[in-house]
Amino acid sequence: xxxxxxxxxxxxxxxxxxxxxxxxxxxxxxxxxxxxxxxxxxxxxxxxxxxxxxxxxxxxxxxxxxxxxxxxxxxxxxxxxxxxxxxxxxxxxxxxxxxxxxxxxxxxxxxxxxxxxxxxxxxxxxxxxxxxxxxxxxxxxxxx
Length: 144
Known about the structure:
alpha+beta, three-stranded mixed β-sheet, two-stranded antiparallel sheet, 7 strands
């Protein structure tokens, strides 16, 4: 599939994103990383019109969330509480995507999904609060 971004922009994205993958247990092969980030761009970033700005924003968001949220792995909390904690940090309500651990039927935080206006990289409130295996803002989910 042909991706509508310049080679230079993709090289910049590759350099930016390599720093996030350097601690991955998966071998870091140039072709694997390039394909991975092209696919991420195609799935999530094309509304921004600028891959470098989009991925830079994603890196900054991740770093700020990790350092600022103080979420403790292994501790359960409600979807509402997690969404409120994230809102205080980034001024936008995410979609809390839940998954269920098969062995225990325990609900886990799968992803935090953020919503943006098309063409802008400013977080806005998502219209839904939860997705996946969560059915309510009162659902209790565990952080891994």
